[in-house]
Amino acid sequence: MAEAAQRSVAEQLLTENRERPAAAEGSGTPAAAARDKPVCLIVLGMAGSGKTTFVQRLTAHLHSHKSPPYVINLDPAVHEVPFPANIDIRDTVNYKEVMKQYGLGPNGGIVTSLNLFATRFDQVMQFIEKKQQNHRYVLIDTPGQIEVFTWSASGTIITEALASSFPCVVVYVMDTSRSVSPVTFMSNMLYACSILYKTKLPFIVAMNKTDIIDHSFAVEWMQDFEVFQDALNQETSYVSNLTRSMSLVLDEFYTNLRVVGVSAVTGSGLDELFVQVEDAADEYERDYRPEYERLRKQLAEAQSKKQQEQLERLRKDLGAVDMTPSTGQTGGPNTR
User: Which of 17, 8, 57 lies closest to 37, judged by CA?
Assistant: First the structure.
């Protein structure tokens, strides 16, 4: 019964999103104009967590609701993309040639390929802006090695470029089947917390592979500190003491964290996920957009000030130029 209600809410949201561009044209409110833009879902996760399969399932789900997404693949090392990508980094950068030319290993090749692609990301932004009326969601599949995107300069450039123009939500895909151990679970949560503070964007934890094991145990650990401590007591490794201390630190992090159990194989939980995405997009408009607009204005002012200083320096270098006409010439243009 609850699942049916959740599904109907999600379907209603998707229907409203398809109809919104036409209805919002006559609306003069800033909120309507802002939400007219597509929501960018930046999909992150550890290697093997099922990010690419998750993006494939999201794409199929949105197509089934007659709301096709704009899909971007940022993984240069993937052999095959199981979804129709509108923009594919492999069309721009040859990963193997980069490794060969610069003498790099696999991870170095991915980082360099991403750096080269980031230099042209302004063109990607133009493509998205041209198609924004036709798509409600933009899905971004990131490289398998999460640290390559999260902690690299190119990842920051891409994230900030998207967030400065469109509502952005980070979806952290977590492998539920590998997080049954309290220590592994805590490691995942620490990484999720670090990404949240690094990106400074609305955040959703998608607990994937619920077709293998239900995610209710993880939700209970997040909501009930005592239950998590009981599970830790069964651990004999020295890391359990550190985990016990860190769990107290993350207690506040859990309070406002959006958690959804999903299965990239069966598609379960996606309706609830999109309800959370809409809520996160509203949070972006309310809390994050003003900050990004302030930073953009501050950057524009700094660039304008720098240009003025360069012009002033050039004027001083050239010195005073005599603008008076020479003898026998008039001040107006030659009308011969």
Answer: 17
CA-CA distance, 166 to 40, in Å (whole number)? 7
Q: What is the Cα–Cα distance from 122 to 104, expressed in whole angstroms?
A: 26
Cα-based angle 39, 150, 176 (whole degrees, multiple of 5): 80
Cβ-contact 125, 154 below 8 angstroms? no
First vs last C-alpha separation in the chain: 88
Q: How far is CA 287 from CA 23, 150, 200, 280, 284, in A?
A: 25, 22, 11, 10, 5
Q: Give counts: helices (H), strands (E), the chain.
A: 15, 7
Q: pLDDT tens digit string along 114-156?
A: 999 999 999 999 999 999 999 999 999 999 888 889 888 899 9
Tell me, rounded to whole angstroms, the distance of Cα 297 from its chain centroid: 22
> What's the length of the chain?
336
Measure the CA–CA gap between 162 and 148, rounded to whole angstroms: 18
Contact 263, 187 (CB under 8 A): no
User: What CA–CA distance (Å, rounded) separates 292 from 294?
Assistant: 5
Euclidean distance between CA atoms 234 and 162, whole angstroms: 44
pLDDT category at 296 given cuts 50, 70, 90 is confident
pLDDT band at 325 (very low <50, low <70, confident <90, very high): low
DSSP run (H or E) holding 171: strand 168-175
Give the residue carrying structure tokens 């379960």: 268
Give the integer Cα–Cα distance in Å for 151 and 318. 45
Of 110, 80, 108, 81, the closest CA to residue 94 belongs to 110
For residue 7, count other CB atoms closer than 10 A to its CB.
14
Q: Do residues 128 and 166 make contact, with C-beta atoms less than 8 angstroms apart?
A: yes
Question: At a CB cut-off of 8 Å and minimum separation 6, what does 59 contact?
Answer: 68, 69, 71, 83, 84, 139
